[in-house]
Write a structure and sequence with these properties.
By secondary structure, this protein is mainly α. It has helices at about 1-10, 20-25, 35-40, 45-50, 55-60, 75-80, 100-105, 115-120, 120-125, 135, 155-160.
Length: about 170
């Protein structure tokens, strides 16, 4: 939990979360890399949903969780984007049920989502855009997870990377 709180304070505390539907508006074109589709087909997109399956309930019980994993802070901190942030930072289109959304890795988008900002990478970064690093990933992919397996950023990052094609 400590790593996640560190990440939230470092990257997201002052920016509003907009939710994946807003990201989809500009990031679903095949000519631009269709980052939305790449995310949608990933395990990150199903992270919250996964907490409702029997295997997750068994894992949670073994980890000492007595209630529903979809309501348990120990689980939600990594299976839901923006878990634990003040509700005032959640935009009206934000839905926790959409799991580990774009903003888990790229920071809350409320201040960088405008096209005029996104066209300038440095300006986007100054307004909250995060370029994922190992440190971002290990806020969840760490030994606090009951299903933890050694995390190799070099091995796993390419599997979730969704760069914009070079023109």
């Amino acid at each position: 939990m400590a790593l996640l709180l560190y990440w939230t304070k470092l990257y997201a505390a002052e920016h509003k979360y907009i939710g994946v539907a807003k990201c989809k508006m500009c990031h679903s074109s095949d000519t631009k890399g269709n980052q939305y589709k790449h995310w949608y087909e990933s395990r990150h997109a199903k992270a919250y949903e996964t907490l409702g399956i029997d295997a997750a309930k068994e894992t949670a019980q073994k980890a000492g969780v007595t209630g529903n994993p979809q309501e348990e802070p120990k689980c939600l901190k990594c299976h839901v984007t923006a878990y634990g942030v003040d509700n005032s930072l959640l935009g009206e289109g934000f839905k926790k049920e959409e799991g580990v959304q774009c903003e888990s890795c790229h920071g809350a988008g409320g201040d960088y989502m405008a096209m005029s900002v996104m066209k300038d990478k440095q300006k986007a970064i100054e307004n909250g855009l995060v370029m994922p690093t190992k440190e971002v990933c290990i806020t969840c992919h760490n030994p606090e997870s009951p299903n933890y397996k050694e995390f190799s950023f070099g091995e796993f990052y390419p599997k979730v990377a969704h760069p914009r094609p070079k023109n």
